[in-house]
Specification:
Oligomer: homotetramer
Number of strands of chain A: 6
Structural class of chain A: alpha+beta
Largest interface: A-B, 44 and 44 residues
Number of helices of chain A: 3
Distance between the termini of chain A: 26 Å
Strand order of the largest sheet of chain A: 1-2-4-5-6-3
C-alpha cells in the first residue's frame, strides 16, 4: 500500500510510539505496536487467558480496545505535533470468534479532516509477528471491523498526544 | 426501577455470576459485578493506572469492554439456561473523559427477541460501591452510551453461558 | 418532561421550523414537525405506499431520514442563531417492522457540547397527531432507536440553519 | 473486481430487481438499480431539490436510504430464493456534503453468514450512469460509509424477497 496521506509532523512515528508506551491499558492487555505510517497503525495482540471472555475467545471489548488504539493512532499520525486525538465514538462488528493465537489490529484513516477524522479498522486472526511487516501475516482471517470518529484537540492541557 | 421482563431461567443470576467469574478480561481490568436483575446488569470499575490511555483517563476501549459485558449479561438474564450470548456489534459514544475514581456500567435490555436482542448501556463516573445498590451512586456523571446487538446461541458447544 | 437545557437563541423554535420547511426531503416523505423545545424535536410521519420497502413496511432508511432530522433539529435548538448543524454519523437499530399507520420520531439531546453534541432518538408506531402533544400518542410501540453525533458549524456560507 | 461469493439462487439478479421495483421508497427518491452481482449491488441517485436538506445537499437520511438498500440487496444476492432480508441495524458516517449531480451507492458483503451477514457500503459523488458500469464513474469522491447488519428470514409470510 502506498499511503496518499501527508503529515504535518515529521516526527509522527516517534510521537505515536511514545504515546502508545504511556497507555497503561495497552501494556495490561499485552498489545504491541507493529507499524506506524501516515494514516495507518498496526498492533499485534497475543491471545492469553487473561483477555478472554467466558467461552475462551478474546473478549470483544479487548479486541475493541486494541482496535480503537490502532484507529486513534492512525489519526494521530496526520495531526500536528501539539494536537491530541480523542475518540468521539466507534462501532465494531464482531464477525467471528477471536480465537488467536494472535490478533492483529489494522487501523487506517478513511477521511482526514481538520478537526474530525474517520478511521476504519480491521481485526484479523493471524500468526505471531515473526518479521517486520506492514500487514497481518498470512494466512489471516477477518474477525472484526470498526469505524471510529476522531477529533483533533489542541490547547487542552489534559489532552495531548 | 420495576423490571417488566420475564426470564425463562429462575437461576439467571447465579448463571450470570458464574459466567462473569470465568471472564479473564473482567478480572484483568478489575471489573466487579454489582447487580443482576431480569434485563439489567450493573458493573463497577475502579480507575487505576493500568487501564488508562495516554492522557490518564480510563481507555475508551476498557470502558467499552466493561459496558459490553454489562449489556451482554443483561441479555443473558433473559435467555434460557442452555443458551449462550454473543455480541454481534456495538457502538459507543464517548461523551466525556472517564476520570473516575470509579466507573459504573449500566446495561439494560431495550428489546428482547427470540434470537436477536438489543441492549442500551450507560457509563457513569461515580463513587465506589459502598452499599448494595441498583444504581450508580449519586453524584454521578454520564460519560458514555452504548447500543449493543446480541444474539442468543444454542446448540454450539463452544458458546455457552 | 421538564427540559434541563438552556438555549442561547430565544427564537430557536422559529429558526428550526423555517429550516425544516426548507428540507425538500421532509416534504417528499410527508414528515410533519410536531414539537420543538430546547433539546427536543418530535416529528410525525404517515405510512403510505410511497415510503415503503418491498414488504410494505416503511423503509428503514425513511425512518432513519425522519429520525435523523428529529435528532439534528434537537441539536439545533441549543445552538446559536448563526450556527448550522451537520450530522457527522448516526446509527440506527430497527427493533420491529414499521407498520404505522403513523410513525413518530422523537429526538432528544443526551450531551450538548460546544462543537460536538450527541442526540438519541426513538421511533414509535402510534396513531395520528390528533392534538398538540409533546409525546407520541398512546398506545405506542418502540420500533427503532438512533444515536447521532452532531457538529455545530459557524462561518461556512454553505451550512447555515 | 472478481467476486468470491457463491449464491444458492441462480436467479438472484432477477429476484433482486423485482424486489427493488416493489420498494416505493426507491421510486420516491428516484434511485436506480445499476448493478447486481453475488455479494454486491450498485445504485445511482440523482440529486434533485426534493431529496435535499436545508443547505441544498442531499439529505443524509436519503443517502442512507439508498445505501441501506444497496447493502440489503447485496445480502439478498447470497440468500436462498425463499428468504427475505431484514436490516437489523446500520451506521453511517457522513464524510462530506452530498452535492451530486449524482450519488452512487455501492453495497458489498463483508461477511456472509447463515442467519447474520454484514455489508459495508460506500457513497460517492460522481457523474450520471452513462454506460453499464460495475463502478461509480470517475472522477468520484467518497462522501459516506456505512456498515449494516442483515438477517436472513425464512418462513415469515410478511418478510419475503
Amino acid at each position: 500500500m502506498i499511503s496518499s496521506f501527508q503529515t504535518p509532523d515529521p516526527d509522527f512515528a516517534a510521537r505515536v510510539r511514545a504515546s502508545f508506551a504511556r497507555q497503561g491499558a495497552m501494556g495490561l492487555i499485552g498489545a504491541q505496536l507493529q507499524h506506524v505510517s501516515p494514516g495507518r497503525v498496526l498492533i499485534a495482540l497475543p491471545h492469553h487467558a487473561s483477555v478472554s471472555q467466558q467461552h475462551g475467545f478474546v473478549h470483544a471489548g479487548i479486541v475493541a480496545t486494541a482496535l480503537d488504539s490502532a484507529c486513534g493512532y492512525a489519526g494521530a499520525t496526520l495531526m500536528p505535533a501539539d494536537a491530541g486525538v480523542l475518540t468521539i465514538e466507534f462501532k465494531i462488528n464482531l464477525l467471528a470468534p477471536a480465537r488467536g493465537p494472535w490478533i492483529w489490529l489494522d487501523g487506517q484513516i478513511t477521511k482526514a479532516g481538520r478537526s474530525i477524522s474517520v478511521a476504519d479498522g480491521k481485526a484479523y486472526e493471524a500468526g505471531p509477528p515473526a518479521t517486520l511487516s506492514h500487514e497481518a501475516p498470512e494466512p489471516r482471517k477477518l474477525i472484526a471491523t470498526m469505524t471510529a470518529t476522531l477529533m483533533s484537540v489542541t490547547g487542552r492541557g489534559d489532552v495531548r498526544h
